[in-house]
Structure formats: structure tokens, C-alpha cells
Amino acid sequence: MAKWLDVCKVDDLQPDSGVCALLDGEQVAIFWMRPVLSEAEGADAKIYAVGNYDPFGKANVLSRGLIGDIGGQPVVASPLYKQHFSLQTGVCLEDETVKIPVYAIRIENLKVQVDLSSLPHHGEPAL
């Protein structure tokens, strides 16, 4: 069962960039992507939440990465070695054997919420 936690207000997010939040000991990168011009008018902005830890650079930096689209798939490029991670699945586009966590996220009453039940098991150390 989902356990939604308020993380911040929607106004705290920066368009087309990321922020980092510490949730239950885990660093979570939250991204807000505005619709591109080619999308239908009135299309909703998308928000994504993934683990902030870059498994290649071994540092919590993904919230500072560049976001964009590769082949219709929203991605974040690590600011360290530039690997691209899908914001929907967490899979690395350059090495499909590597994956980062993806978390359930939503906007409710102008607040950004992350589902705590989608975070790793409680008590495990954060990287």
C-alpha cells in the first residue's frame, strides 16, 4: 500500500532541472520536465524521482545532471561520466546491466509527494 510523503511544494521545483531530497535516509533526485513544443497544447509537465547515486561515478550527483529526451525516452545524464539513465525505468542507456532506483511520485494539492513504500527496505544504509 502506498504511503505518500510531502517532499516540497510544486513552486520549489525548478523547470527542466533537478533537486535532491533526503527521504528516510535515501537521497532522491526529483526532476520536473516541462512539455516540449511539439507536444499537444495543454500537455502536463512530468515529474520523476530516481535515486541520486551515480553507480559509475560513485557519488550522489544525479540531481545535478542534465535532463532531456533520447528516442522519446526522458533521461538524466550524469554530470560525472555522462551516462544516461531512463527517468521511467532507471536503466542506463549505455549499459543496460546497470540500473538506478525509480520511485513513485505525484503532485497532490500543489505538493510533490513520494511514495515511501517504493523506497528501499528501512534500516539499510544509504549510499
Terminal residue distance: 26 Å
CATH superfamily: Rieske [2Fe-2S] iron-sulphur domain
**Structural class computed from helices and strand pairing:** mainly beta
Percent of residues in helices comes to under 10%
What is the residue-averaged pLDDT?
88
- In this structure, how is the largest beta sheet organized? 4 strands, antiparallel
Report low-confidence residues grouped into runs of 5 or more: 122-127
Q: Give the percentage of residues in beta strands.
A: 35-45%
Using the coordinates shown, work out and report the CATH topology.
Answer: Rieske Iron-sulfur Protein
What is the CATH C level class, in words? Mainly Beta
Q: Compute the number of helices.
A: 0
User: Rough shape?
Assistant: globular
Q: Topology as H/E string?
A: EEEEEEEEEEEE
CATH architecture designation: 3-layer Sandwich
Number of strands: 12
Describe this structure in words.
The strands form four sheets. This protein has a four-stranded antiparallel sheet, with no helix packed on it. The chain contains no helices and twelve strands. The model is unreliable at 122-127 (pLDDT under 50). Helices cover 0% and strands 43% of the residues. Strand 8 and strand 9 (84-86) form a beta hairpin. The protein has one domain (4-118): Rieske [2Fe-2S] iron-sulphur domain (Rieske Iron-sulfur Protein, 3-layer Sandwich), CATH 2.102.10.10. The chain has 127 residues and is mainly β.
